[in-house]
Amino acid sequence: MENSLIALIDMDLVCYRCAASAENDDVGIAIYRANELLDTLLDRTNATEYRAFLSGRNNFRKQIYPEYKANRTQPKPIHLKALQEYSVEKLNAEYAPDNLEADDALGIYQTEESVICSLDKDLLMIPGNHYQWAFGTSKWQKDEKFFTQTELGGLKLFYEQCLKGDKADNVKGIAGIGEVKARKLLENLTTEEQMFDLVRGVYSNDGEFVMNAQCLWILRSLDDSFLNRYEKLKDAEIQE
Length: 240
Description:
The protein is α/β, with parallel strands linked by helices. It contains ten helices and ten strands. The chain has two domains: 6-149, 5'-nuclease (Rossmann fold); 151-239, DNA polymerase, domain 1. The strands form three sheets. A six-stranded mixed β-sheet has the order 3-2-1-4-5-8, sandwiched between helices. A hairpin with a 4-residue loop joins strand 6 (135-136) and strand 7 (141-142). The chain is globular and about 55 Å long. The protein starts with 5 loop residues before the first strand and ends with a helix.
């Protein structure tokens, strides 16, 4: 990237991956790798400053849907907590505002002068600049990727998720609809109103649709919510 940007860093992911990679090593190895990855992100994005975010203890999505992320039962890396604490104390990482996840903080603070640094595909629903760093194993490698998301492209990814669900977060979609079918249903739609009407119609159950959508929607501002968006889109549909 030619222009200098503010890097918005998914510190949840940085801490988890660096802690997991040092599971059989001293915590100092995990700290070294986190510092190294942070330096790489700043260098590759040409960022002169950054904001790094961790998820807080509470999560409004679990109040909406208690089974949200309930499928994540595997033990956490042993150095994860220590790395999170180090990130706050030494790397100026911040916890997301009350009841929000790091993803929401990245969505809230994304501007034309920032770049979201994460490997989380969900964040690609946020318009603007994105950077995914290279990663892999000795047997396979995924190259780094710079990407600028459009508003329409981000919305299509969101409504696609509403249809297919998100197994990683334990959010169910529509039975029988996977990624290919979801994309096919949405591919020729050019406005959010069209996407909203289609997905709402496929659900045929507003309660389930709104519950899932609230869990999947990444916030754009502190007072944002999919519920507000739903009411506006529904009212527009009625007026037509």
